[in-house]
Design brief:
One of its GO terms (molecular function) is DNA-binding transcription factor activity. Belongs to the LysR transcriptional regulatory family. Keywords: DNA-binding, Transcription, Transcription regulation. One of its GO terms (biological process) is DNA-templated transcription. The protein is of the alpha/beta class. The chain folds into two domains: about 5-85, Orthogonal Bundle (Arc Repressor Mutant, subunit A); about 90-293, 3-Layer(aba) Sandwich (D-Maltodextrin-Binding Protein, domain 2), CATH 3.40.190. The chain has helices spanning about 5-15, 20-25, 30-45, 60-85, 100-120, 170-180, 195-200, 215-225, 235, 270-285, 285-290, and strands at about 50-55, 55-60, 95-100, 120-130, 140-145, 155-170, 185-190, 205-210, 230, 240-245, 250-260. Strands 3, 4, 5, 6, 9, 10 and 11 form a seven-stranded mixed β-sheet that branches. The chain has a two-stranded antiparallel ribbon with strand order 1-2. Helix 7 (about 195-200) links the parallel strand 7 (about 185-190) and strand 8. The chain is globular. The termini are far apart.
Amino acid sequence: MPLDWNDLRFVLETVRQGGISGAARALRVNHATVARRITAAEAAMGTRLFDRHASGYRPTEAGLEAARSAEQMEAASHDLGRRIGAKDQALSGSLTITAPQLLFERALAPILRQFADRYPAIELKVLAANRELNLSRMEADVAFRISDTPGDTLVGRRVTAQNATVYVGRDQAARLRDDPALPLDWVRFAHWPGPPEVIKQNWPNRRVRMTVDDMYAAIAAVRENIGATRMPCFLGDPDPLMERLPNVPLLPYRSLWVLAHPDLAKSAKVSAFTDFAAREFAALRPLFEGAAA
């Protein structure tokens, strides 16, 4: 029985994800398909690639070797795809863009509409994801990243600096104006160390009312007057249900970058889009820097 090279993708993802459940999610298939393709690869190679335990699949030495070979094949395939893609100078075909969800919702969507109007032959595919997709593995062509250190494996430009400050719901702000002695109710981020130092100094009387794990939840909490929290100015300033907390300056926040893999950066589609996006975000700098309020 000859080896189907596609079966090795299932072996690789099972090793990579630590089991068939993760592999099924990554490959967007069901568990049975992953198990069947692994069994087919084992039959073709005449050896066991995984030990089956109650706790899940554990790769054997042969399985790890097969995964390493599959990873090399995958890298070669992606490298070939990028090099061929770099030669594509047509302003047509698909272009995949990844960006954080809130950036897409609040600022990027109008820019994409304008780009699509200007280049109707380019089919835009948007992956609105807060996790960083791997451009080397061709999960996307262009990435918007909010970071001070976007890494040295991608090329691009910083399209705008960013500032943040502390925002509070309209009703909570009115209560604090009426009675400055009230404690400042605070919405805490689970992955941030605590309030900015200026909050500790200017509002020593405060209490944590809620802990959240993402910005969508924080925005909802501020809108409902549960508490104040820090967020980027491009999210807080345009929101009619919140306002800036008094006596809090602008706080530095991570910059916004538009990035591509070096092999694809000079292709016509990628170059046209990154240039267009950089110009449009330049016009939005007052919003991102907190100067538009």
